[in-house]
Design goal:
4-stranded antiparallel beta sheet; 12 helices; alpha/beta; Aspartate Aminotransferase, domain 1; single chain; 3 domains; Molybdopterin biosynthesis moea protein, domain 2
Length: 438
């Protein structure tokens, strides 16, 4: 059999097309890798599973930069850190509906029970939750011992971490946070306040917004006991052969961000100029983080998917779309030429859009302010995806990206949800079948 290097062909084609990269990773294709750095565990290199020498020192240096007591480098992405946090949660967990699929998967893997706040409106990407919502949920469900935030969310909206941290301390609650989209917040006063000094445990990505390799992240902590327990769990789940080029890229990304705070000043100015030039052309969704550029596609009288695809035709690749939004992830490695190309593309799309078209009305079923997710669903079976309407879902199922479940375990499967997933990359389906309660 003649074998083709299919992945290499795809990657080469993409790179040679000189795309405008408005998606993760934050390095934007500008990393220089040295194959000589690809080594195994040696006396000089230390071991991520039992860090010593340079790895231990690098992790402690990174913890200090983020205002935390402890740090662990992660080479299985934020996913592995989120799983480690959920595994050691105290009591039941209060979490947001727009939590990452890894949090829901961890509930099942570690037999945890969660109360899920329905912080979603028209977009499954959700909005930030408040102290008042947390307090109401905790008073109604006293078994809650851990609050697991998602802040910032995909759209760049942040929870009030200072107020929530103060509340959790007063209420004797453990505070954890999936801040995968906030790894850059520590490096500029123009950005939202970082959650890292305020949480018992948190996870930040260093590839989404910083310049590290994809699949790299940090678990940070200020609670020694919980950090040790989570670290132990992560050690049992992570690879025993961590890539040293990935580890080095984590350290380099943090050091580069620390030494280059002016990069965010310049990026902020570029974003402001772009928005000003397009003020009468398209509407951008307000948010807390200027590195999340979110087009409100209703201002073009188009769906998010349609605008996403039109930009792709013009060699501009964004990170994700929702029914009414296109989300772009920016970093200090984006250039002024990227913004010029984006402006030109948006003007061209606007000039050709049908302003009289009728957009579909997007509605999400209201199922109450809070839902319970646990493993008490009983015996299950797999049924074909297209034959599952009306059945009770036994797993948390969605599309990737954004890797937020469209259907939670315990919810009734609707035709609307199946239609949303058709033709898209799904998570937690098994060969086209979905797990349901018998």
């Amino acid at each position: 059999m003649f074998m083709k290097k299919l992945l290499e062909i795809m990657l080469s084609y993409y790179a040679q097309s000189n795309p405008v990269r408005l998606h993760m990773p934050g390095n934007k294709g500008k990393l220089t890798l040295d194959g000589r750095f690809d080594i195994t565990e040696l006396p000089c290199s230390g071991n991520l599973l039992y860090p010593n020498t340079c790895i231990e020192s690098a992790q402690q240096q990174t913890a200090t930069v983020y205002g935390s007591k402890r740090c662990r480098y992660l080479v299985n992405g934020s996913t592995i850190g989120i799983m480690g946090m959920v595994a050691v949660a105290v009591g039941d967990i209060l979490m947001q509906r727009n939590s990452h699929i890894s949090a829901y998967n961890a509930l099942r893997l570690f037999d945890k029970r969660a109360y899920v706040l329905n912080n979603i409106q028209q977009s499954l990407l959700g909005k930030a939750i408040t102290v008042e919502q947390i307090d109401k949920a905790v008073r109604a469900n006293p078994s809650i011992g851990t609050v697991l935030l998602t802040s910032p969310n995909y759209m760049g909206d942040c929870c009030d971490i200072v107020a929530i941290s103060k509340y959790c301390k007063q209420a004797n609650l453990v505070l954890m946070c999936d801040s995968a989209h906030g790894g850059h917040h520590m490096f500029s006063p123009l950005l939202p306040e970082s959650v890292t000094p305020y949480c018992d445990l948190c996870v930040v990505s260093v590839h989404k917004d910083l310049t590290s390799l994809t699949q790299t992240a940090l678990m940070l902590g200020n609670n020694d006991r919980l950090f040790d327990l989570a670290n132990y769990t992560v050690g049992r789940l992570t690879s025993t052969s961590p890539n040293y080029i990935m580890l080095s890229s984590i350290e380099r990304a943090v050091v580069d961000a620390y030494e280059r705070p002016d990069g965010y000043t310049q990026l902020s100015q570029s974003v402001s100029r772009l928005k000003s030039r397009l003020e009468n052309v398209v509407r951008f969704k307000p948010n807390d983080d200027f590195t999340r550029l979110v087009i409100d596609t209703t201002s073009l009288n188009m769906t998010g998917e349609a605008v996403y695809m039109e930009l792709e035709k013009r060699n501009i690749f964004c990170d994700v779309f929702s029914p009414h939004y296109v989300i772009m992830l920016l970093s200090v490695n984006n250039t002024e030429q990227d913004f010029i190309a984006l402006e030109s593309a948006i003007r061209d799309i606007e000039s050709k859009c049908d302003h009289d078209a009728i957009l579909p009305i997007i509605t999400l079923p209201h199922v109450g302010d809070i839902e319970v997710v646990d493993n008490l669903l009983g015996e299950t079976e797999l049924v074909p995806f297209n034959e599952s309407v009306g059945r009770i879902c036994a797993d948390n199922v969605g599309i990737a990206p954004p890797c937020i479940p469209l259907i939670l375990a315990g919810q009734v499967i609707t035709q609307h949800r199946l239609d949303e997933m058709k033709g898209k990359p799904t998570v937690n389906l098994v060969n086209g079948a979905i797990e349901v309660v018998k």
